[in-house]
User: Fold Nicotinate phosphoribosyltransferase from Ramlibacter pinisoli.
Amino acid sequence: MAFRPIITSLLDNDLYKFTMWQAMLHRFPQTSAEYEFMCRKKPAFPLAHLVDEVNEQLDHLCTLRFQEDELAYLAGLRFIKSDFVDFLRLFQFQRRFIRAWADGEHLRIRAVGPQVHVMDFEIHVLSLVNELYFRRVDQEEAVQVGRERLVAKMAALQAVADQPPRNFPLEVFDFGVRRRFSGAWQREVVTMLRDRLPQVFKGTSNVLLARDLGLVPIGTMAHEYMQTYQALGVRLRDFQRAALEGWVQEYRGDLGTALTDVVGMDAFLADFDLYFAKLFDGLRHDSGDPIAWGEKALAHYRKLRIEPVTKRLVFSDGLDVPRVLQIYDAFADRVPTGFGIGTNLTNDVGHEPIQIVMKLAVANGQTVAKLSDAPGKVQSQDETFLAYLRQVFNVPTP
Assistant:
């Protein structure tokens, strides 16, 4: 079979990879990092079968460069600095920094090197593994199922939008790059949402699609940004504050949505004082009960004597349309909300999605960890460090 590249543009990536990349380049360009690929649930067939194709796709990925029209688009985003664009003009993935191999039935992928040279592998790796995996199913049948389901989802969203207005509108974004059935299918999904649901659909995390389809690119920070600060020489108890302060200094009012679940919502709010609550526009939920999380957020703002209506809550944890509508109904009259839907938009085609991630495991030779509000999302290679992190932030063992 002739080789068909999956990634053909380095813009085919989540916006938050670029925003974190710029922040780390400006502040800690010397940081070394290790990223590990993992599959959280046994797939329908062993991912190890993909290893040769994965290596072929990685070979191709490492030939790509940012094109001048792509750099011009990035330069037009007011929060992207000219020196970062100059760095990207020179940037090329180095094949020696990433390795993929079969380990029994498991596919192993590890990227090791300077963080500013390996952090951008993540989304591309997840996209290409997903697409290679789903090339083994009937494409035409899957896309037809996906279209039918998408039409039903749009109808449900439109029905809510057509109801008497609430205090704040229903707004949905595409967050599906990393879990998509294919790049072509994501483009079709986002195009349909843009054309048929303009009242509700407000943007995509995919920078390439945002550019090509005239949409707003959506995204701020992910866990790796916060986790890196666990290894940057600050006292562990202070890493969240240091990360938030670094973000404020980098973006000075732009990209003001903070991620809350690196060590859990309670520990986050203990650090999210009046200073940060005023500087950030809102918070993003990514694990645990979303309604309980939202109530904690609103209570925290009220305790700080900040009107919740001046902030925004963004939800992005495994959402489907019924869940979106349930959460929206709970908060629509009290606080602006936004909903980033991933897998359920870009990989709901009649085949069970694979649960793959590629996460920061080590920075500067030190293990980093995430204490998610959902036990299944707790992440660390080092149980001793995980226990220490729980102790420092007073997070009980589930």
In short: The first strand starts at residue 32 and ends at 39.
